[in-house]
Amino acid sequence: MTIERSQSKTAAQKHMRPLRVATASFIGTAIEWYDYFIYGMAAAIVFGPLFFPSVSPAAGTLASFATYSVGFLARPLGGIVMGHFGDRVGRRSMLVISLLTMGFATIGIGLLPTYDSIGVWAPTLLVTLRFIQGIGVGGEWGGAVLMAVEHAPERKKAFYGSFPQMGVPGGLIIANLVFLGLTTNLSDEAFLDWGWRVPFLASAVMVIAGLVIRLTISESQEFEAVKKSSTEHRMPFISVLREHWREVLLSAGAFIGINAVGYIFMSYLLSYSTGVLGLSRNLILTFTLVASGVWLAVIPWASALSDRRGRRGVLLAGSAGLVVCAAALFPLIDTADSALILFALLVTAVFMGVVYGPIAALFSELYRAEIRYSGASLGYQLGSILGGGIAPTVATALYNNWASTTPITLYLTAVTLLSFGCVLLITRERGPRRPA
Q1: What percent of the chain shows pLDDT beyond 70?
Q2: How many Å apart are CA 33 and CA 223, to the nearest integer?
Q3: pLDDT score of 353
Q4: Cα–Cα distance measured from residue 407 to residue 45, given in angstroms and rounded to the nearest whole number
Q5: Residues 6+ apart with CB under 8 A from 7
Q6: pLDDT per residue over 141-160, tens digit each?
Q7: How many CA atoms lie within 13 A of 113 on its CB side?
């Protein structure tokens, strides 16, 4: 009887371990992306007048989004450095370091003096801290996804791998709730004076909670097997470039479209709809909040579907849907009709979820365990630079130059078509087939 209870307990622990690790990945990732997204919201609303007051409002917004893009330039560096040590030392330790790095930078931004106080040092320090944020989030994604995927049962890799993916809309939802609460209860003057600092300083509490959670999880059996067999690569990054350069390029291309649409959805639309169309800030924040909830809900569903039906069909359907959304998004937004704007955001969120969920498992399955952190991170982060890293800046520059959203629509349609082609190639040539 005692043996049976012991075996039953062991089986239950084995069953719960993937879920516990995946949940920990979701919580930690949501915290890091909250940190990252509050910067984007502040860039859209307050960083222009506070850190670039000597230029016109349009130029200030452009400069603000340019500092936003700096974080993306640092993301591959974070992916390379933390991917190297993640493949050699362990995934968990890099997740702890990435969380602390992000927390340090985010709290620092909340404490920054503005241009009126220290002049040019204000935007200089802002850019520096944004760069550090980029390093932190660049090392975060690969480790969080691999911990979830490598602990998962064979037939549920995408489903468990979707938990850290859900951290992105999860972090966005938290960020929107915080900003919505502040802008609803504070005057514009109070928000511009001190209210914008609250989301950054509140990060300290969440970082501590995330750190406690991450210290409770263990390495995966796949990585432990690499350590035991002493098959670690001396320079995993070089091995990836030498042996898997095609997978890296196709992964980056596959990710550009979803990332560009995502950051237009999460950041630029707030600036455009309030600054150009004159819509209520709280209305757009509320719509983004609702759409983010839909995005979060679709991610695990689409990922589980790809476990059953295969990655290829799900990702191609989602990528095709994103092309249509890219072509229709701004024409619907420009109507300034609340119902049509909400419809556009909800449909876009659905197809973002269909693509973003399964892509985590797809990227991780392209590489052997001993170089997986470096390989998956590199493709993802390169795609993030060419996608979301430049999308808000490009959109702002295009509108300032043409006074029309048509060039933005053409740009988004082009990058989503590129991603559709890359998904077609990567799933046909190297991606996993439908489970047996």
Answers
A1: 90
A2: 26
A3: 96
A4: 23
A5: none
A6: 888 888 888 888 888 999 99
A7: 8
Q: Give me 230's structure tokens.
A: 């002493």
pLDDT at 326: 96
- b vs e for 366-388, b when ≥16 Cβ sit within 10 Å of the residue's Cβ? bbbbbbbbbbbbbbbbbbbbbbb
Per-residue tokens: 61: 């917004």
CB 21 within 8 A of CB 217: yes
Using CA atoms, how far apart are residues 149 and 152, in angstroms rounded to an integer? 5
Neighbours of 113 (CB within 10 A): 13
pTM: 0.83
Quickly tell me which residue has 């983004």 as its tokens. Answer: 288
């839909």: which residue's tokens? Answer: 294
Q: Token pair of 4, please?
A: 């049976």
Q: What is the pLDDT of residue 8?
A: 43
Q: Which residues, given as ranges, of the chain have pLDDT below 50?
A: 1-15, 430-436
Nearest to 363 by CA among 377, 345, 383: 377
Phi, psi of 403 (to 5 degrees): 55, 35
Name which of 20, 24, 52, 66 is nearest 116 in CA terms: 52
Secondary structure string (H, E, C) spanning the chain? CHHHHHHHHHHHHHHHHHHHHHHHHHHHHHHHHHHHHHHHHHHHHCHHHHHCCCCCHHHHHHHHHHHHHHHHHHHHHHHHHHHHHHHHCCHHHHHHHHHHHHHHHHHHHHCCCCHHHHCCHHHHHHHHHHHHHHHHHHHHHHHHHHHHHHHCCHHHHHHHHHHHHHHHHHHHHHHHHHHHHHHHHCCHHHHHHHHCHHHHHCHHHHHHHHHHHHCCCCCCHHHHHHHHHCCCCCCHHHHHHHHHHHHHHHHHHHHHHHHHHHHHHHHHHHHHHHHCCCCCHHHHHHHHHHHHHHHHHHHHHHHHHHHHHCHHHHHHHHHHHHHHHHHHHHHHHCCCCHHHHHHHHHHHHHHHHHHHHHHHHHHHCCCCHHHHHHHHHHHHHHHHHHHHHCHHHHHHHHHHHHCCCHHHHHHHHHHHHHHHHHHHHHHHHCCCCCCC
